[in-house]
Design goal:
GO terms for molecular function: DNA-binding transcription factor activity; sequence-specific DNA binding. This is TrpR like protein, YerC/YecD. It comes from candidate division WS6 bacterium GW2011_GWF2_39_15. Pfam families: Trp_repressor. The chain has 2 domains: 31 residues, no CATH class; 66 residues. The chain is 74% helix and 0% strand. The protein is an all-alpha fold.
């Protein structure tokens, strides 16, 4: 039987095999329940809004979530393993490097 760490590494590597949003969505749906996907989507939205400078209370109110949930995401955003930050920075970098379509 494989160790729990090997199982996690294999899962992480499985995500790396996916090539587009549809493949990721299908894999996630097979892997998780709809409620689990929704929970992860909420956490991601919280991280995005925190990164955009919105207050924790504003986010909790706008998303109809507890302040505890928002605070937990904020803690991981600031003192976690930099997973949120890595993806947020890469997305922001992509948005800032897109060619201006007005000149076309």
């Amino acid at each position: 039987m494989k160790s729990n760490m090997n199982n996690k590494i294999e899962l992480y590597n499985a995500f790396l095999q996916l090539k587009n949003t549809d493949e990721v969505a299908n894999f996630c749906r097979d892997l998780m329940t709809e409620d689990e996907i929704n929970e992860f989507a909420k956490r991601w939205e919280i991280a995005r809004q925190l990164n955009d400078g919105k207050s924790q209370r504003t986010i909790a109110r706008n998303l109809n979530l507890s302040i505890t949930t928002v605070t937990r995401v904020n803690r991981w955003l600031k003192r976690g393993k930099n997973g949120y930050k890595t993806v947020l920075d890469r997305i922001n970098s992509l948005h800032h490097h897109k060619p201006d379509s007005a000149g076309l």
